[in-house]
Design brief:
By secondary structure, this protein is of the alpha/beta class. The protein has twelve helices and ten strands. It folds into two domains: 262 residues, 3-Layer(aba) Sandwich (Rossmann fold); 129 residues, no CATH class. β8, α6 and β9 form a beta-alpha-beta unit. The longest helix is centred in the C-terminal third of the chain and has 39 residues. It starts with 24 loop residues before the first helix and ends with a strand. This is VWFA domain-containing protein.
Length: 429
């Protein structure tokens, strides 16, 4: 596995069937603090008064390393022109973390669906997710056994692809170093309406490696980024204390989880139709441009990846396809036109499917409008069924004994309170 660089769309092998191997815990973790909006400040060039070194080589233990890539933002952080929720996932991919990775893969769409009703002063925020892995001996030691797998993106199929690319091996887990890298390498948005959170998950001592966690967290606070810590083990273990202290120092949340917790899927009468509609909506996408064919192929591949984990994940992914946060305007012409990213007259016909290349502007505009209308209809049907399904599942959960490892209700209630305080609101349904 490469020690640097991002996932650029190589096709992934289809995941073997692992029905019943998923976990709800990562869902609750990601939702734990996403409404902790802090005031943003200018992007500083120094770390605690000292110049920021790069990670290319050995770093002296007392000097906090904080890398800057060639294309990393300099000066002030870009200001959010529209509301945005930014989530950076820092996942331990050492050899004991297979269960954690499975949870992240399968619960991604549940998180998206929960955040779909979020608004900031009436506007729906854009959701951007980034992914780092750390603690994997397959990565280069000079990088701290850390890799940025995916920079911030709103193309959620790319996030899913990145999660399914992860493997476990090793290793040495440098929590402070990976936090520092995420703060310095990612393009965090500043200003009102920008929600910035890090979730770091692991199961070893929090204080390892050349960067002290308190220094990395201090830099995060300067950027207005809240760091939430997820300890994969019992909260009574000795190592849990460091993770708890890290969250406290940041103003974030500490949560301990069982990474191998198994979610029991609750069947609902709407499941079959939601699954079918999730497939039908794929026919409304029109690939265009250099990324078009990969984008369409990746959409199908992520459907297949979720199918390998059972019905629960498939249903959640189907519901995500009616979400305003599920956007594919970099490769789907329907989304691109809807987002005013380009005009029909600007579309390079050579990047379109063969049957559309000979259409003039009016014909292509009519074709895109027809696909948009069909998508709107399918999304409305999905949304209606999803609400019915949620009511059924909620009633069934209330009837059953409470799962001791499930924090769904408590976390969602907390996030609603925090969202109101920060200016965000979530759909109460």
């Amino acid at each position: 596995m490469s020690s640097s660089g991002d996932v650029h769309g190589d096709h992934l092998p289809q995941t073997p069937n692992r029905v019943g191997q998923t976990g709800r815990a990562i869902e609750t973790i990601l939702l734990a603090s996403t409404a902790c909006l802090l005031a943003a400040v200018a992007w500083p060039i120094v770390f605690d008064g000292a110049p920021v070194p790069t990670y290319a080589g050995q770093v002296a233990a007392p000097a906090p390393a904080a890398p800057c890539q060639a294309n990393a933002p300099q000066g002030s952080a870009p200001t959010a022109s529209a509301p945005v929720i930014q989530i950076a996932l820092l996942l331990d991919t050492s050899s004991s973390m297979d269960g954690l990775i499975d949870q992240a893969r399968t619960q991604l769409w549940r998180v998206v669906n929960t955040l779909d009703g979020a608004t900031y002063h009436g506007d729906q925020p854009r959701l951007e997710i980034a992914l780092y892995e750390y603690g994997n001996d397959s990565l280069a030691g000079e990088s701290g056994w850390i890799r940025r797998v995916q920079p911030f993106t709103s193309e959620l199929n790319d996030v899913s692809e990145a999660l399914f690319s992860l493997t476990t091996n090793g290793g040495s887990e440098h929590a402070g170093q990976v936090i520092g890298r995420s703060i310095d390498e990612l393009e965090w948005r500043a200003g009102d309406g920008a929600l910035r959170v890090v979730y770091i998950a692991g199961n070893e001592a929090f204080e390892q490696g050349p960067v002290r966690s308190e220094q990395a967290i201090s830099r995060a606070k300067q950027q207005g980024v809240v760091v939430n810590t997820v300890f994969c083990g019992s909260p009574d273990e000795a190592d849990a204390a460091g993770w708890r202290e890290g969250a406290t120092a940041s103003g974030g949340r500490f949560v301990s989880i069982d990474p191998n917790h198994v979610v029991v899927h609750i069947d609902a009468p709407q499941d079959a139709e939601l699954t079918q509609l999730g497939q039908e909506i794929n026919a409304t996408y029109i690939q265009y441009g250099a990324e078009g064919q990969h984008g369409l192929d990746n959409l199908v591949e992520q459907d297949n990846n979720m199918a390998g984990y059972g019905l629960g994940g498939v249903v959640e992914r189907s519901v995500s396809k009616c979400s305003g946060m599920y956007r594919n305007d970099s490769w789907d012409l329907v989304d691109a036109i809807d987002a005013n990213k380009l005009d029909i007259s600007e579309v390079d016909r050579s990047g379109l499917p063969e049957p559309l290349r000979g259409l003039d502007d009016e014909q292509l505009r009519a074709h895109v409008a027809a696909k948009q209308a069909l998508r709107d209809d399918l999304q409305q049907r999905i949304a209606t069924l999803a609400k019915q399904r949620e009511a059924h599942v909620a009633a069934e959960r209330a009837r059953r004994a409470q799962d001791p490892d499930s924090l769904d209700t408590a976390i969602i209630e907390a996030i609603r309170e925090q969202a109101v305080a920060a200016g965000f609101t979530l759909d109460p349904s």
